[in-house]
Amino acid sequence: MSQQFGKGCHLHLIDGSAYIFRAYHALPPLTRKSDGLPIGAVSGFCNMLQKFVEDNAGPNAPTHVAVIFDKGSHTFRNDLYDLYKANREAMPEDLRPQIPLTRRATEAFNIACKELEGFEADDIIATLACQARAAGGRVTILSSDKDLMQLVGDGVDMLDPMKNKRIDREGVMEKFGVGPERVVDVQALAGDSVDNVPGAPGIGIKTAALLINEYGSLEDLLDRAAEIKQPKRRQTLIEKREQIEISKKLVQLDCDMVLPFTLDDLEVRDPHAETLLAFLSEMEFRTLTKRISDKLGVEAPAIPEPVQEAPEAQAEQVPIAPETYECVRDAAALQLWIDRINDRGYVAVDTETTGLNEMRADLVGLSLCVTPGQACYIPLAHRAAGTDDLFGSDDLAEGQMDLEECLALLKPVFEDPAVLKIGQNMKYDAKILARNGINVAPIDDTMLMSYAMNAGLHNHGMDALSERYLSHSPIPIKELLGTGKAQITFDRVAIDKAVGYAAEDADITLRLWQAFKPQLHRKSVTRVYERMERPLVPVLAEMEMHGIKVDRDTLSRMSNAFSQKMAALEDEIHELAGRKFNVGSPKQLGEILFDEMGIEGGKKGKTGAYGTGADILEDLATLHDLPARVLDWRQLSKLKSTYTDALQEHIHPDTGRVHTCYSIAGANTGRLASTDPNLQNIPIRTEEGRRIREAFVAEPGNVLVSLDYSQIELRILAHIAGIDALKEAFREGQDIHAATASEMFGVPLDEMTPEVRRQAKAINFGVIYGISGFGLARNLRIPRADAQGFIDRYFERFPGIKEYMDQTVAFAKEHKRVETLFGRQIHTPEIGAKGPHAGFAKRAAINAPIQGTAADIIRRAMIRMPEAIAGLPARMLLQVHDELLFEVDAAAAEELISVARAVMEGAADPVVKLDVPLVADAGQGANWAEAH
DNA sequence: CCTGTCACG
DNA sequence: GACGTACGTGACAGGG
After folding, report:
1. Which of residues 511-540 of A touch strand C (CB under 7 A)?
2. I need a labelling partner for A772 at 20 to 30 A (CA). Which of A35, A389, A541, A748 fits?
3. CA distance A903 to A897
4. Using CA atoms, how far apart are residues A289 and A43, in angstroms rounded to an integer?
5. Domains within chain A, CATH numbers bracketed
6. Residue with CA nearest C7 C1'?
7. DSSP code, position A188
8. The model's pTM
9. 3-state class of A604 per DSSP?
């Protein structure tokens, strides 16, 4: 039966990666019904293989066939040029686990499946095609990759599997303007932005083809470059000769690989019905299983239909029963769990630690869950009970696995790209594990799934999610740790008590994941979750763990200075008041001012206390000295307590740096929030406060670099609302507030006064916040009628703004949510409220798409940043809503600025094409005050 | 634990 | 016609 490959043979080569990506992008993110395993790409891939098999009857039928895959990310091309494919976007996380399944699918169809570590599929395809051609056979390459067009001709053609379009010599001529043998030359000149092949700047395919046709070959062209008439082109070709030559090597396919198999191994084989159907039914592809079994004339295997019930009902099906969870105490027991995880391809993980601060807390135990109701807890560092039962012992409790041994066993699983690790707030667990030498990936996060779907509806903590979506109240941690002064840490909890609590968390997480995963697509937030939530986790974890250096002495000195000034002010205030009182007590201050000193106009709030806010005291300052002194005192008190004192407590003893924690799902609009400490509200507006930033420093030899988006929210407003005058002003780089003032008041730009500009600025901000006459009047301290007049005139000059506001509110009323340009949904359940609530909800709805789009943009920049700056001695340290702060070797500061700026300014691409440019301003210096 | 105040974007 | 309002956060201190 077997025939030697030669004349009359027809080899089909399928570009496996191309098939997979086509399948992935062409189909919605399907999941396997029984367990939610992402399966869309595998499904598409199988359909394409099936179609391939069905189509191949008749004269064009292949005698030989193979699916060729890429393997390994580092190839000889990376050695030639380290930036090769450097700006490739990372593989989507829900595609990664599907890759091994497509290999299995190929084998199930009984089609040869070939790959070689460190080689791209293209080179294997090229080698096979050349071998087949040399043997006198025909070749069809099933791919649309233009790199493969070099191979066309002499019995080799291509077939674009999606468009079903055959590409022959003429097709190549059409695409490249040259024959297949010169395609490499054209590519070398034109470069390829997708693969990051540099080529010759300013020369595209058209020009390249023109040049090659004129000079015959790339080599002749480069040798005779001096003859070229166009000066720019001539210069490029002479100066970039080396870069062009490297480009040619990058695009040139390798036809002479030594392969560990021969063409004869690729002979077409009929699939084994049993193997193929077993695989298809395991994947739960009902239609395809039926179709193929009909075709093969065998009975289709039964695929159990999972019961379609509400999540609540499913939860009842397998009750959450903490007493049934297993306690894993040795390597043999753990190995059983690892086997289960590898079988499944995913696992819910939860870590227990001695505290909530990821940089200080120690690992105490781990829980795992692979199927609802089956979870385990692995205690690792619980302490033995003390002899007197009052003070715990420092010795480890009996019956625990050795921590190192456990981590060594779990590390390969936790780092296995084919095993998905599911967590609730995975950044926490990832940081704890990272400090123990494990880099968890890939991950899914139920908290972030909920955030993507439900922002604005409720918070996304596990207790809330469990109650809402599983109708189950988890064991409160208080039951184990107690509260207040008597609170203990988790390592002091008895192991048998810990098992139920800890394993339950993993069980709940898995159940939430199963409930949420299919919902992401239904609610149209898959892209938001996949592109703007999940990829941010490792980026933030990295930033937080790296921290920023804070100089304790600087803070301490400032603190002392503040103390002295405050003491002096306090004396003065008591003197003015006529008696001693607590200046820090708004209640006492109100009584002093309005009762004892008899100042008029005190207003009591709903609690019955006088208001003493800064705005009120500022008004009173014109009448009396005391309020002005109190304002000064308050400013110092704030700076001292919140910054110079508290910040010192946050300096980590081991690193000497401050490690903030960002909440990804904290703010409804998509913004991050910073806690412990909050590094997004370090003072800057007053000179005295600004000096606190001098304590944030770079290591010796380094500098801090700050890049912040200029007017990003106004730019977004100009784009969304379509305000031509504003767009124009931004495109021309004008001072936007002055331009607004000029448009509104008819004052020419060169006659603009600071006062008029200030008013326009207040209006611009007001618009972003959902302007009201009252709010603007208060901000500008002008009569309300005047403020309303400004607003009316503003809407008159920029009618698009009013239209945007009305449309947004109408959309919110209809859908109970608004959306950012990138599809992030922010729910607005209060939008229909009556009474004073109504105004709040409207303004929030107007503001959310603007603030949220800005948040999306900087998220995208942050996600791309690590790869972009990977080659530089630089680290991203902080995010402050529209600013990114870096630490970089002083010598590389300028390069970092240009790279990071490009990432930030291009962060909306390619999903959203903004009508206005994004601009990032940069600064650098030894400390944050100088850098900003 | 809640409220007022104030730091940031 | 009156009401009460700028949007989004977090930390600290005072006071029940």
Report:
1. none
2. A748
3. 10
4. 11
5. 10-266 (3.40.50.1010), 311-524 (3.30.420.10), 549-658 (1.20.1060.10), 712-855 (1.10.150.20)
6. A769
7. H
8. 0.71
9. strand
- Tell if A680 CB is < 7 Å from nucleic strand B: yes
pLDDT of residue A434: 96
Q: Where are the alpha helices (DSSP H) in A326-444?
A: 331-344, 403-414, 426-434
Q: Which amino acid is at A930?
A: E
Give the closest residue to A636 by CA, choosing from A562, A585, A582: A562
Contact A109, A279 (CB under 8 A): no
Q: Are A140 and A9 in contact (CB under 8 A)?
A: no
Residue A85 Ramachandran class (φ > 0 left, ψ -120 to 50 alpha, else beta): left
What is the C-alpha separation between A244 and A238, in angstroms, rounded?
10
Query: Which nucleotides of chain C are near protein (any atom < 7 Å from a CB)?
Result: 3-16
CA of A912 to C1' of B7 (A): 34
Instruction: Assess whether A762 (CB) lies less than 7 A from strand C.
Output: yes
Angstrom distance, A247 CA to C14 C1'? 69
Q: Provide CB contacts within 8 A for A895, sequence distance 6+.
A: A872
Please give the nucleotide, over all strands, whose C1' is closest to the CA of residue A828. C7
Q: Among A52-61, A509-518, A626-635, A792-801, whose mean pLDDT is lowest?
A: A52-61
| pLDDT (average), residues A271-281 | 91
pLDDT digits (tens, 9 = 90+) for A589-607: 888 888 888 887 777 777 7
Backbone angles phi, psi at A499, to 5 degrees: -55, -50
A677 touches strand C (CB under 7 A): yes
| b/e sequence A858-881, b meaning 16+ C-beta within 10 Å | bbbbbbbbeebbeebbbbbbbbbb
Residue A584 approaches strand B within 7 Å at CB = no
- Tell me the backbone φ, ψ of residue A381, rounded to 5 degrees: -140, 35
Which residues in range 643-662 of chain A are in contact with strand C, contact meaning CB within 7 A of any of its atoms? 646
**A319-343 average pLDDT score:** 95
Q: Which amino acid is at A583?
A: V
On average, the pLDDT of chain A sits at: 90
A881: nearest nucleotide, CA–C1' criterion: B9
Query: What is the Cα–Cα distance from A618 to A616, expressed in whole angstroms?
Result: 5
Q: Is the pLDDT of residue A191 over 60?
A: yes
Nearest nucleotide from residue A770 CA, by C1' atom: C6
Q: Is the CB of A683 under 7 A from strand B?
A: yes
pLDDT for res A651: 93
pLDDT tens for A892-917 read 999 999 999 999 999 999 999 999 99
Q: Is there contact between A441 and strand C, defined as CB under 7 Å from any strand atom?
A: no
Residue nearest to nucleotide C12 (CA to C1'): A642
Within A177-285, residue ranges assigned H as helices are 183-190, 205-215, 218-223, 231-239, 241-251, 273-282
Rounded to whole angstroms, the Cα distance separating A250 from A878 reads 37
The reply to whether A770 has its C-beta less than 7 Å from any atom of strand C is: yes
pLDDT category of residue A144 using cuts at 50, 70 and 90: confident
Q: Which nucleotide's C1' sits nearest to the alpha carbon of A585?
A: C14
DSSP state, residue A118: T
Q: Is the CB of A778 under 7 A from strand C?
A: yes
Q: Is the CB of A706 under 7 A from strand B?
A: no
C-alpha angle A362-A345-A68 in degrees, rounded to nearest 5: 125
Instruction: State the first-to-last Cα distance of chain A, in angstroms, to the nearest integer.
Output: 76
Is the CB of A639 within 7 Å of strand B? yes
Cβ density class A229-240: b for 16+ within 10 Å, e for less: eeeebeebbeeb
Output Rg (C-alpha) for chain A, integer angstroms.
Answer: 33
For residue A644, give Cα distances in angstroms to A34, A533, A554, A635, A691: 55, 33, 9, 12, 10
CA-to-C1' distance for A641 and C12, Å?
A: 7
